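Course assignment 3, question 2. Fill in each field.
Student: A.L.
Task: Predict the tertiary structure for the chain below.
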Amino acid sequence: MTDVKKSYEMITDFITGEMVPDIGAEENRQDVERFLVNEKGFSKEDIEVDVDIELVIAGEPYKSQIDLVVCVDGTRYVAIKCAAASLGSREREIIAASRLLESHQIPLSVVSDGKTAIVLDTVSGKKLGDGLNAVPSKEEIKKKLNSSELISLPVERLEKEKLIFRSYDVMNVNVQRNI
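Answer field:
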């Protein structure tokens, strides 16, 4: 018996220009990418796509990806989860990812379906705003970068955040890395 992979319709990623399978929340991600560039003043070079995150949980390696990470002046400042359904159910996943990706917590966590968004403060976990307009522009982030401190995740929270991230992330079945 041969292993036959399902064929997927392919679309061109707005940021990378690469062909990607149009599965799950991919269309939503394309909408978010266009919004960040066309409405919020980011360049394509400011936005990382499918950012690898590698963790060791209970002695076992765990690899995944974060949909989008926005950098300003060389600092990763916003991590974004693109979802096709209930945004609220993905808040905790992106907060955990934002707390784990870097040596500092990425300040803002966002969940979006390309039409609306939930913006969260990563350190406190509190909601900062709803809707795409709540996503800060590049200029707004630049102003905050000059006056804000990047905060590390307390060591006693590290293992808990890894477990939280993995618990939510394993439910992501319609993603490119799983085909």
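Instructor remarks: The first helix runs from residue 26 to 38. The two ends are 19 Å apart (CA to CA).
Grade: pending
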